[in-house]
Amino acid sequence: MRRTPDSCTLEGGALLGAGRALRNALVRKACLCARRGGPGARVCAASLLACVLFAALRRAADARLHHCPAAPDAASIAAIEAEDPPDAKVSVADATPNFLLIWSTPASSFGLVPRRCLESVFYHHPRAAVTLYSNHLSPPAAADAPPVLRDLFARGYDVRVRPYNLSALLAGTPAAPWLARLSEWRRGPYFYSHVTDALRLALLFRHGGVYLDSDVILVRPLRLAGVAETLRLPPPLGSPYSDLKDALGVESYDAPPPTSLFGSPSAQESSVADDDTDGVRAAPAGRLPMLNGAVLVFSARHSRFLWAAMAEFAASYDPKRWGWNGPELLTRVALTRCAGPGGAPVQVHPPDAFYPIYWRGLERLASAPGGEDGEEQRRAWRRISRRSYAAHLWNRKTAGLALKEGSLLHRLLHTWTVLPAEGVAGRGVGERSNASLAW
Predict the structure, then answer these.
(1) Pairwise CA distance, residues 103 & 195, whole Å
(2) N or C, which end of the chain has less CB nearby within 10 Å?
C-alpha cells in the first residue's frame, strides 16, 4: 500500500527539503575540503557534524511518522466498559447489523436527507439496530420525537435515541487528554465538527458497528464480516474485498508532492468519474488518497486502529483546521502511522465504494437529466448501481440546491425508502419492494 506523508512531512516538508539540499551541499564541501586539506579542515568538520545531526533528526522524524500506539490492554478495556457498558441488544454476538449515527443540532433541522439515510439503512437491512446519539432528539416513542423516528418505530424498525456525554465517552481512551483544554477548544471555529470527529471514534471503539454520517444513502446491503445475513448478495463490481471489516474509504485523490496532500486541489475535478469499465480501477498514477470518515465499518469492539486514531486526535489537535482532525487524521493513521508490519491494518476502499460522487460540481447532478449533464448523470447512476455500497451526498454543499425530479441527487434521495410519501402506504419490517436502478 502506498504510504502518504503525515504532519511531520506535510508541515515540515519544505524544511526537510531544504535540509536535504543543505546536507548535499555540505557533503560536497566536506569532500572538497578533504581533498585540498589546509585551513578548511574546520569547515569540513562542521559540514560532517551537520550531516550527522541531520541524519539523527531524520531518523527521529521517521520513528514518529510510523509509530502506531500499542493495542489497549485488558485493564484499559475493563475501565472503559465499567464507564459505559455496551447495549447487549446491539452487541456483535447477536450478529445483528448495528448502525451508529450522531445528531448534534436541534431536532427542527432533522429533515429529508437524514430521514432518507435512515430509510436506506432499513431498506437494505430491515432487521438492523440503528442508534442515533443525540442530546437534541427525543426517543422514537415520545410525542415530540421527529416524525420519521416515530413512523419507523411504529412500523417495527429498531431505531433508538441515546444521549451522549463527551467527557464520559473519551474517559479512559487516548483522546482523554484533549479534554483538559476543552474550554479553549470551544472557541475554535470548527469545534462542533471536531467533536463529532472524536465521538465517532469513541463510539465505534466502545460499541462496534457501522458509523454513517446522516447524509449517506445506502444503495445496496453492506457485506459485514461476521454477520451472515448480510453476505447473501455479492460485493459491488470491482471491490477489492469480499466483505467489510475495519473498513473506510478514499474520498478523492489529490495532487502529488511537493503540493501538500491536505488542502491541495483535487485531481478528481469532475463530480463523477468517466471510467465505467469492469474490474478494479487503479488509483491515478502519482496521486495520493484522502480518506473520509463519513462511513466507518468496525463491527468488532476495541479496534486498535480506532485507539491509535484517538491518540492522534489528542496529540495533534489543531482547532483552526477543519479537516486536520477528521479526514486528514484518518489518512495519517491508516496510510502512514499504522501502515505496514506491526501496525493496525485496515481496508481502504476505492472512492466508488462510499464516495462515488464528489463535492465539486454537484450542481450539475441536481439539474434535470438532459443534454451533456444528463449523460453525466446517467453514467454516474450506472456506475453507482454496479460499484457502490453507499453515496455520500455532501450535505454542506447540496443543502441549498433545488433538486429537479429525475436528477441523480433526486433519485438517490427517493429510491430506497420504507416510509410512505403523502397518501401512499409504507412498508414495515420484512416488507421490501425492489428499487428500480434503470434510468
Answers:
(1) 11
(2) N
